[in-house]
Amino acid sequence: MKRSRTGRRPGNPDTREAILAAARELFAEKGFDAATMRAIAAAAEVDPALVHHYFGTKEQLFIAAMQFPMDPRELIEDVVAGGPEEAGVRLARIFVTVWDSPIGTIGVSMFRSAMSNEWTMRLFREFLATQILRRVQAELKLDAAEASLRASLVASQIGGLVMIRYIMKLEPLASLPADQVVAAVAPNLQRYLTGDLGSLTDSATPEATGAGDPGRG
Question: Of 43, 60, 119, 131, whose CB has the highest number of CB atoms within 10 Å?
Answer without folding.
Answer: 131
